[in-house]
Amino acid sequence: MYVSRIAYFSRTIVLGTIGLASVAELILGSVYFAFIHAPLNIDSNGRKNKNFKNGLALLNGTLSKLKRKRKENKNFVYKAREEALLLEISKQAYDFIFSYAKIDSPDTLILSSTSRFNIDTQLSPQFESIVNIQRINDIRFINKFFESANAKLPLGGLFIDFVETKGLRKQRILEKYPPAFNYFFYTLDYIIKRIFPKFWLTKGIYFILTRGENRVLTKAETYGRLYSCGFAIIDEKFIDNHLYFVARKVGEPLFPTEPSYGPIVKLERIGKNGKMIKVYKLRTMHPFAEYIQEYVYRKDGLAEGGKFNNDFRVSTMGKFFRALWLDEFPSLINLIRGDLKLFGVRPLSKHYFSLYTPELQEKRIKYKPGLVPPFYVDLPKTLKEIMESEMKYLNAYEKHPFITDFRYFFIAMFNIIFRRYRSK
Q1: How many helices (H) and strands (E) does the chain have?
Q2: Would you say 38 and 52 are in contact if contact means Cβ atoms under 8 Å apart?
Q3: Quick one: 316 and 401 in the same domain?
Q4: pTM for this model (two decimals)
Q5: In angstroms, how far is the first alpha carbon of the chain from the final one?
């Protein structure tokens, strides 16, 4: 462009570009050289540092000290957290809780609360673990509290808390008060805390007197509430007269629409054509116990006769009702409504139904379940024998429905009345 002059202003463009680039490079180089060799005033006496490299080294040292200080402060915070916890719970309880949760993690939420407000208002959307060191007996809206904990945990997240169970409460009261008076106080406590909440007329009085605090809870009810709120129990331990538990989130809450504390319960059972029916029973189990069938089966399996082994869900009064068949009387409502027939296979829950073979499941749902089952004819002892007994009955019923039911019913009644056959 400069030699041939083929473009207008060619010399100006070439020389101007070179000149400007040279000036810019000279200025930048001078600034860099001056900055490298400039002394730094860093001490109170005005003495100058050697050079920029020493200043950079000092800056790096300061940053390292800040990082170390931050780490020390972090350790101090978690040490303070540990010391505060040990003022509230024993070392044994502390060791059990933090064998599952991480005390030195910001993803572990530690509370001492009876209000869901303290969970809902946390800024963090999720935590790996939630630890509450306040017993759940003092939480008025227990399921709402559990639901809030569920919402703040991912699948697999842990919720840890503890409860004073009914048996532990009785032991504490009897040991606290002198003989004779202790049983009087326990009876009064039982009436107010156990009977009043079960009836509509006295439930309001119960909450006025107690404000929902210091309530009596069984292990079955506690675990049943947890399972209905999307948790599964993975560990438990009795410590300091309390039952500590570790629950893992396995799903979303079920939000039961008909939770019941009253003497009459409606249990979901599989009816004809697989339709779910509500079977009326006199309560023999603690509230929410129906949600932990899978837990009881996994823990202890089945006993002789096909019932769950060591079934802690059955109350003391419930055992009495079952022995006299009193729990079955409300099922007459289902008989009148046409959900059940007088004789037939027992209506089963979803979990118990899942233990049966596909062939028997398919045959079972072809017909209505019955009020009096084939169990009282054959008295089977194992699940396999129960299935064989029911299959034998259903095969006979397919050929001669009326005659089969008539014969089975009178054999069952004879065994119940005269041979004292009972389902435990």
Answers
A1: 17, 9
A2: yes
A3: yes
A4: 0.74
A5: 109
